[in-house]
Amino acid sequence: MVAALFIIDVQNDFTEGGALGVNGGAAVAADITTFLWANADHYCVVVASRDWHDANSDNGGHFAMDAEPNFVDTWPPHCVAGTYGAEYDPALNTGQITMHVRKGQGVPAYSIFEGITDDGESIPAMLDRLEIERIDIVGIATDYCVLASALDAVATGRSVRVLTRLVAGVAPESSVAALATMQEAGITLVSEHD
Ligand code: VGL
């Protein structure tokens, strides 16, 4: 099957020490790099997304500006365009990424499908152009951007797999629930892969 790999939001603000660092984020960054050395050439395209929010804006209510964030739909400011926090975690080897996607400019955007490639292409157009049949998904955060991306991916009618050793979530309970939601939607959870 012609396959794409989606690497969701492996950015400094989502790994330990970042504005919204999740436990296990840095390990996921390093483990994705190891995975890419062995598997990148199995993919027709390796697509990485970045949250890319506006500075000096609540980004459509996504950033808690004057109140405490609830960590469900309001968050501490994170991944502001052009800042260190928005860069890929340095443990992620970007040399094998063949397409970059940015999302969230002025708005909340959990799914990679809300983004646009550096060439200005939408994700559905790119998937059709490359005749992608299967999408594998890894990255951060299991319970938010990975979940939203995986649900949008399976809604295109393609075969979708989430590689569960290569994801990290904001909270344990919502991450378990997210994986169950994915399975119910017909997404395959793969826990063993080389
Ligand atoms: C994310 C919370 C807020 C994510 C993005 O990448 O999963 N989570 N913005």
Parts with pLDDT < 50 across at least 5 consecutive residues: none
What is the H level of CATH, i.e. the homologous superfamily? Isochorismatase-like
Determine the mean pLDDT.
97
Query: What would the CATH topology be?
Result: Rossmann fold
Shape verdict: globular
Integer tally of domains: 1
Q: List cofactors, ions and other ligands.
A: pyrazine-2-carboxylic acid
What CATH architecture label applies? 3-Layer(aba) Sandwich
Number of contiguous helices: 4
Instruction: Give the percentage of residues in beta strands.
Output: 15-25%
User: Strand order across the biggest sheet?
Assistant: 4-3-2-1-5-6-7
Percent helix, as a range, is 25-40%
- Which secondary-structure class do the elements indicate? alpha/beta
**What is the H-and-E element order?**
EHEEEHEHEHE
